[in-house]
Amino acid sequence: MKGFGFPVGALLMLAGCVAATGGGIRSVALLDGAVVAAAPAGYCIAPGAGQRQADSAVVIMGRCSATGTAVPAVLTLTVGQGGSAGAMVGGGAALAGYFTSAEGRAALSRSGRAGDVEVLAATGVEDAFLLRVRDRMAGEYWRGIAGLRGRLVTVTAAGPEGQTLDPAKGRGLVEATLAALRRANAGASGGAVANQTATGG
Q1: pLDDT tens digits for range 122-155
Q2: Which residues touch 148 (CB under 8 Å, ≥6 apart)?
Q3: Which of 12, 77, 39, 30 is nearest to 179 (CA)?
Q4: For the segment 106-119, what is each residue's pLDDT rounded down to a tens digit?
Q5: Does residue 193 lie within any of the structural domains?
Q6: Does residue 40 fall inside a structural domain?
Q7: C-alpha–C-alpha distance, residues 48 and 25, integer Å
Q8: Residue 104 within any structural domain of the chain
Q9: What are the phi and psi torsion angles at 30 (to 5°)?
Q10: What is the mean pLDDT of residues 54-79?
Q11: Which residues neighbour 13 within 8 Å (Cβ) at sequence distance 6 or greater?
Q12: What domain range includes position 31?
């Protein structure tokens, strides 16, 4: 299991952690419609942020409006290659064992060094696996891991640069984003495209 660290630029980002002003992109099709990325209420996808590759993608989300009630946070969605959801087959116990091992902590680490990461909590919720992580370089954050349309997806909630996100709110945002992803991808055809305008928040 590779590529669980923060994308290089993901925390340099979003001035004030606002993805759009007034309105913005709430959902968008990725990888020729293989998966629809969707933001939770009050958050929007940041245009031009993240990365797109041939069979994987990284999407960055922030508050739709600086004047709304949404908590300042950076949400990072990573969509793995086709078939990568097989990593979930072993279940929560296997995932917990992996991510608390030196190899797993190195995979989570922004620096790639296992010693820089401490896994504070690991738990299964519905069809997802949640981790609370403390990274010497990236700070403390919650991350959710789930399978979506045959692909492994991860959702990370962290505070804007220089700020700390309350752990309870971070976990809530991860779970809300996973729920938005499930709704956006339920029964969608492979070529579906969904772009919606934010209503604020």
Answers
A1: 988 888 999 999 999 888 999 999 999 999 999 9
A2: 35, 79, 85, 181, 182, 185
A3: 39
A4: 999 989 999 999 99
A5: no
A6: yes
A7: 11
A8: yes
A9: -120, 155
A10: 91
A11: 46, 49, 60, 62, 74, 161
A12: 15-185
